[in-house]
Amino acid sequence: MIYYFSGTGNSKWIAEQIASKTDDIAVDMIECSTVPSIDNQTIGIVFPIYAWGAPEPVQDFVKKLVGKPNFTFGVCTCGAEAGYAMKKLCGLFPLNSIYSVAMPNNYVIGSDLESNEVIVSKIAKAQEKLKKIADQVISAQSVVDVNKGKLAWIKSNLANLGFNKFARSTKPFYVTGKCTSCRQCAKDCPAKTISIIDGKPQWSKKCYQCTACINLCPAKAIEYGKATCARSRYHFNE
After folding, report:
1. Burial group, residue 174, by CB count within 10 angstroms (0-12, 13-18, 19+)
2. Which of 29, 204, 213, 229 has its CA 20 to 30 A from that of 43?
3. d(CA 66, CA 68)
């Protein structure tokens, strides 16, 4: 079984691709209502990197896994570097093989997004890498293929701590007049922090910073402060 967490589709696609190539099943960990048994199974964990760390829901999920699997692997998606995210996740849930796969940037809150040429190139390279990953998973090979990048310890500890403590505020979120009251943002939010009041989204305090609401809004009506107003949006399916 392959469990994934995904905001705008990158990690979902990775999980589904590996599942297809290994004759397995990809499941959204947010949708798991009960704690799954992992006895005698091949277990995969696929997720995006947030500030050189594993997102909170991923950490919470792996802590609940019970049993003795036959083989475990983890794949993280990132713009370029994963830092020590995979190493730290192994401290919560031992992984036999770990990988990082470069995928298009979706963090519109922090910077403008990449060009279509870069996006297409990253996805093409990812497709090639996934073939290799799938073969290694099938043969249960122990592999470490992670691009940690420079200053990995500092990024995955100090920078990640700052991100989780200060950068996950929902206060800057707001909706413009483009909003059509479709409620898609509330459906897409894995933190279930969005409620619809008088036809418009309202954010409570909990936020993973997955950017699903802002990137997946059909009307592009959601902003985060002033910077995102001039930036494009990213959704893997597009």
Report:
1. middle
2. 213
3. 7
